[in-house]
Amino acid sequence: AQKVTQAQTEISVVEKEDVTLDCVYETRDTTYYLFWYKQPPSGELVFLIRRNSFDEQNEISGRYSWNFQKSTSSFNFTITASQVVDSAVYFCALSEVTSGNTPLVFGKGTRLSVIA
Amino acid sequence: DVKVTQSSRYLVKRTGEKVFLECVQDMDHENMFWYRQDPGLGLRLIYFSYDVKMKEKGDIPEGYSVSREKKERFSLILESASTNQTSMYLCASSEVASGRRGEQFFGPGTRLTVL
Predict the structure, then answer these.
(1) Interchain contact, A91 vs B43, CB within 8 Å
(2) A74-79 and A88-96 as β-strands: parallel, antiparallel, unpaired?
(3) Would you call B66 an interface residue with chain A, using a CB distance cutoff of 8 Å?
(4) Which of the four pLDDT bands, split at 50, 70 and 90, describes residue A29?
């Protein structure tokens, strides 16, 4: 069975600090996708990234970066120089890739509060 | 841009009422999903559908049913609402094409309160 664990329930940082959100997953599939979503106070989940299990290259997008380590089954998300607008709940998710119509398995989310 | 809309942002119903939550997507996606979100529990899958008139149970289908008569519309039905169904309900859709496989697009959510 697939499982995603986000051990950090809530994190609070001061603006401009760097923060890393942890994600550990379990799956028996050899190919899978990993995702991060952001849920701001407005409530709508926003897609941030999809990573294929074959691609272990780290990715950077502006202040956001993702570290995928297959050896430790982790897909961590770092925000550099955090801003108040980064305050949200962040979800890590997993899906298999074979069929294209299987649901995502979500972690329970990490609530990030960035204080000015 | 993909647009997923849900019929109501906020809904208040009484115990025992039949409740319909509607979701419409405008990008011809094959897959549609209903989740509920509760504090400390994350997103839990209720039902999903990968084609018209097709449905699959998710992790917590009890007390719910769904209907997908048209590709763009996926309805969640609470046959007899109960207080433990008070929650945020999120609809999502996704396509099968490999370029964006698995990426789900979410609606704004419906916060349902059952009194």
Answers:
(1) yes
(2) unpaired
(3) no
(4) confident
